[in-house]
Amino acid sequence: MLLREDPEIAAVVLDELDRERTGLQLIASENFTSPAVLAALGSTLTNKYAEGYPGRRYYGGCEVVDRAEALAVERAKRLFGAEHANVQPHSGASANLAAYAALLRPGDTMLAMALPHGGHLTHGSKVNFSGRWFDVAAYGVRRDTELIDYDEVRDLALRHRPKMIICGATAYPRLIDFATFRGIADEVGAWLLADVAHTIGLMAGGAIPSAVPYADVVTFTTHKALRGPRGGALLCTAELAAKIDRAVFPFTQGGPLMHVIAAKAVAFGEALRPEFAEYGKRVVDNARALADGLATAGMRPVSGGTDTHLALIDLRPLGVTGREAERRCADAGITLNRNAIPYDPEPPTVTSGLRVGTPCVTTQGLGPGDLAEVATMVAAAVRDPGGAPEVRRRVAELVGVHQVYPSES
Ligand code: PLP
User: Is the ipTM of this complex over 0.90?
Assistant: First the structure.
């Protein structure tokens, strides 16, 4: 149908499918959703306006889409053991905006992880609304261990008396001690927001400890390790439910994307199955195998390794910048991103590091032995641009055996 109606866009869709199938996808924040999630996304639920919440809409005809949102909310609560869930945020950034809108006023102080140490743009970067509208104090990782410096977090909290402390990161390979963050937040009377966009999929099945018992509000994206459609969501206590709901709609958003909410419900349903818990554990095993393999090949995993789905790799031992390594890997059919490492001497557009993650390759069925092999491919691509055709051949062979979206699905 699309091919007949709009061949130009059909070609884009097919070319992207081909790119996803024929390359090695190591971007830590991406995944391959199931065909069931894609089916919900491509449904007529996209046609429906449904401002408001199930049973309390500002449009007629919402009785069908109400069922999708009620299922998404109920499944999210069950999956994460949360008292309340809001599944309407269009993205992770929108979820954070809503959390701030619910609990802060412009000019309030927040304490969050610095962007160059692994924090997210929406955690107070000057180029983002969060940095423009709030006073931001930032904590980082220690130079020696490259782990979050909890003493520094406490000192900064006592000095700045933030109204909110944010934990959660976009490029931090280790577990976050949510209990310690809770203690510090309580000591200074701050809200604790856990933005676990990257790791919620691992928390779902218990591969890593959950932030839900500790944080007042948990924000996340549904499209990373969790393997759902592109979007955001919030979890909170029953006490904060009304505040959070009002902050999403009508304060920061209008009509919810009902096709995406239905797809979120599908993904939460998939994540409730025992196989997903196994998936989470395998993502972590695979990330460890990849980090170990890269270390053996002469690169340095920041903090010495990983407890999660991602590794941050210091390339300085090889004398190659992040930007150059990203380009060389792309030439060899490996998609990953350059990333600043803590205390990076290079500017953010260049960087000394790479970020690699295993949600995609694990969905595809690769195991730790394959990831050790993948590490040798990445190393070969980074070390020698001339060897790109040979690496590309090895990549094609590996992903050919573990094909994503086989034609019959
Ligand atoms: N929070 C964290 C920790 C993230 O890593 C990301 C995205 O990478 C976001 C928020 C924002 O998500 P989105 O890109 O959906 O706005």
Answer: yes
